[in-house]
Amino acid sequence: MPTSPPQQLDQDASGPGRAVEYATAGVILTGGAAQLAGTAELGRDVLQMPVRISGPTGIAGLIDTIGRAFLPDLVRHFVSYSAGSSLGPSLSSMMIYMLMAAILVFRPEGLFPASNR
User: Fold this and answer.
1) Mean pLDDT of successive 10-residue segments in the chain (117 residues)?
2) d(CA 10, CA 66)
3) pLDDT of residue 100
4) Domain ranges, ordered by start, for the chain
5) What does the pLDDT read at residue 4?
6) What is the structure's pLDDT at 53?
7) Is the dihedral of CA 78, 83, 85, 89 positive or negative?
8) Collapsing DSSP states into helix, strand and coil, what is residue 52?
């Protein structure tokens, strides 16, 4: 009887030396520092294995998500439907920058000021 794919994977992975083979297959770097120029090349040189830069896709911030959901309809209450349909998405894209500007007006030192030690 043929084995199912998960059982086959378990059998393949349990062979001698497979853990080392999987561990040295390569590295995927994520995060802000991984986006710096030359990170993949430096990783290849230091780790002596394939390095790939990646990260999550399709994830937006909370402010942006709320803005895209509610702001166009809110704008349509104050201007015509066609103007609101084009102005709403534009404003929602700028909403995070407007929020940052508002925070800096009221807290010029930022949300989390440096402690004076």
Assistant:
1) 53 60 77 83 89 74 68 79 77 78 86 72
2) 44
3) 85
4) 5-53, 62-106
5) 53
6) 86
7) negative
8) strand
pLDDT recorded at residue 21:
67
What is the rounded distance in angstroms from the CA atom of residue 33 to the CA atom of residue 39? 8
Phi, psi values for residue 79, rounded to 5°: -130, 175
Evaluate whether 75 touches 90 at the Cβ level (below 8 Å). no
Nearest to 11 by CA among 20, 3, 21, 23: 3
Helices 81-106 and 62-76: crossing angle in degrees, nearest 10, is: 130
Q: Which residues pair with 28 in a beta bridge?
A: 52
69 burial via Cβ count (<10 Å: 0-12, 13-18, 19+) = exposed
- What count of residues does the chain have? 117
- Contact by Cβ (8 Å): 105, 111: no
DSSP annotation of 28: E
